[in-house]
Amino acid sequence: MESLPPCPRCSGEYTYEMNNLVVCPECGHEWVPAADGASGTDGGVAGGERVIKDAVGNVLSDGDTVTVVKALKVKGNPSGIKAGTKVRNIRLVDGVDGHDIDCRIDGFGAMQLKSGVVKKA
């Protein structure tokens, strides 16, 4: 049985493979393992930096503008966020419970969204 490397972020030993990534269930960190000790082949992206993708697979980065693809219920607000709402100047964070986008939505204020409910505009 092949042994997987420990997590570079939290040193967790319970890592597992998912497609071509190695995932740490303790901190949620995802990375592409280096092939036979080769490093520096990631095209300038810092090693261990996770890639956040939107609902259709586009890579997101800080400052992007995204569009909400499905209606979202907001606790304490009867109307919620409608599909098609544009959100400008997002910030990618390691949020709680899968919420990895920090943003400000007009009429709602500061919120955290999951990357699976937005599309890059």
UniProtKB/TrEMBL annotation:
Residues 52-121 form the Protein YjdM C-terminal domain. Gene3D superfamilies: 2.20.25.10, SH3 Domains. Residues 3-31 form the Protein YjdM N-terminal domain. It holds the Pfam family YjdM. InterPro entries: YjdM, YjdM_C, YjdM_N. Belongs to the YjdM family. This is Zinc ribbon domain-containing protein YjdM.
